Amino acid sequence: MSELDFDTKVFDKEYIAVADRQEPIVRGGRHLFDRLPAAFDGVRQLGVIGWGPQGTAQAQNLRDSLGDAVRVVVGLRTNSTSWDAAVRAGFTPEDGTLGEMYDVIRRSDMVILLISDGAMAESYQDVFAALRPGATLGLSHGFLLGHLEQAGDAFPEDIDVIAVCPKGMGASVRALYLQGQEVNGAGINASFAVHQDVTGRAVDRALGWSVGLGAPYTFRTTLRSEYLSDLSGERGILAGGVHGIVESLYRRFRDQGMSDEDAFRHSAESVTGPISRTISRDGLLGVYRLLDADGRKVFAEAYSVSYPVGLELIHEIYDEVRSGDELRSVVLAGKRLARFPMGKIDQADMWRVGQKVRADRLEDDIPLDPFTAGVFIGVMMAQIDALLEFGHPYSEIANESVIEAVDSLNPYMHARGIAYLVDNCSITARLGARKWAPRFDYALTQRAYPVVDDEQTVDIEVFGEFEDHVVHEVLRVCAQMRPSVDIFVE
């Protein structure tokens, strides 16, 4: 059995042909909720620790899915500012579903640790000490593994260590789950990992957790592969990259004579609106094929000058994550934030213009700008190629580079603004976007756009491999397992 294969006694595993590989998955759906008691066999209490974006969504989804089969309890610090919010969501100390975090950990058979990465790095030893022997520790991010390796430490040997990592922000995880009450199969895809299995039940508990969250399909990864691709992706096309791309394009279009409003429509609105919707429905090739002959020429030139810039930056980001530098920067930032909290990044002229544009928006009037499409897809393909080069599974690459963007993050950006989403991500993602967005902006402005705008010779050979790239077949297969409804944003 390969590292990414698995056996399950509760759910139906199938293999999908993803380009030249066979990858095992489990399809979700509410019709499987009656299998959850078997998947969580031996778990009487499930503690969800933290009330951030993922904690909020996961605690409510699992409570709703598990019903009376497993008690879902939220654990928070006694003085947590989130205590009242958890109570409003129906978790209360009176009925035993809300308590102090370490008390909840000690009393739970399975603990899903969803506190911030910085807090995890500071408190993991106390968390480990509170876990029962034979308990299951669940993570939704591989950050802690990377931190332990940097610190020369390890997980306790007498516990299961698993992960379920939804490929979308917490608000999407909850919103699509609620839509699933009406349309079976609505949800956010997830990866899962089993790092330690001392009970023999780790795989089924991880799959039950994913199905209980509402994931339409769940694919296998490893904790290390997950944090390398996740941290790189959010610093790349998912958050930092897209933020830098649209800022650079906004200035370029405005410098070429567009009004502020039109520059915003041709940059940010175009990416989060028609470009993302077309990718979601018809793939990356669908965007290119939607253009006329002149538009395809513009797309190809924009792609050709942006792809090399993106590839270089993604390689640098990946090296910084793999070396531990990005993880250390998150831990160090946690010590500064009490004194120097992160301010919002929506105060620049561009984002104030965006508020007006969204208020007056006519969806059918948003242009699918071919230059913007070429730049965005060029950088997205650079991330895809970098993750391919580093050996990540096709499913993980497709989700971390494309599906999470167009089916989860970008719809929120379209409704609220790109800066809004960045300001409401995890602390780790917010830090990464703030650090790397200016790098994408600077590199594209200084090195990519002048080649086209100054009528220099564009190396169109860079575009030559686009139409025959393996990712198009990967996306075609993965698109068959996308959420069965489009996300709504309240």
UniProtKB/TrEMBL annotation:
Keywords on record: Amino-acid biosynthesis, Branched-chain amino acid biosynthesis, Isomerase, Magnesium, Metal-binding, Oxidoreductase
Organism: Kutzneria buriramensis
Bilayer-crossing regions: none
InterPro entries given in the database record: 6-PGluconate_DH-like_C_sf (IPR008927), 6PGD_dom2 (IPR013328), KARI (IPR013023), KARI_C (IPR000506), KARI_N (IPR013116), NAD(P)-bd_dom_sf (IPR036291)
A biological process term (GO) from this entry: L-valine biosynthetic process
Annotated positions binding Mg(2+) 2: 230
Protein name in UniProt: Acetohydroxy-acid isomeroreductase
Domain KARI N-terminal Rossmann per the UniProt entry, residue ranges: 26-225
Pathway: Amino-acid biosynthesis; L-valine biosynthesis; L-valine from pyruvate: step 2/4; Amino-acid biosynthesis; L-isoleucine biosynthesis; L-isoleucine from 2-oxobutanoate: step 2/4
Single GO MF annotation: ketol-acid reductoisomerase activity
Family: Belongs to the ketol-acid reductoisomerase family.
Pfam families membership: KARI_C, KARI_N
Residues the record lists as binding Mg(2+) 1: 230, 234
PANTHER family assigned to the protein according to its UniProt record, in alphabetical order: KETOL-ACID REDUCTOISOMERASE, MITOCHONDRIAL (PTHR21371:SF1)
Residues annotated as domain KARI C-terminal knotted: 222-364
Cofactor annotation: Mg(2+)
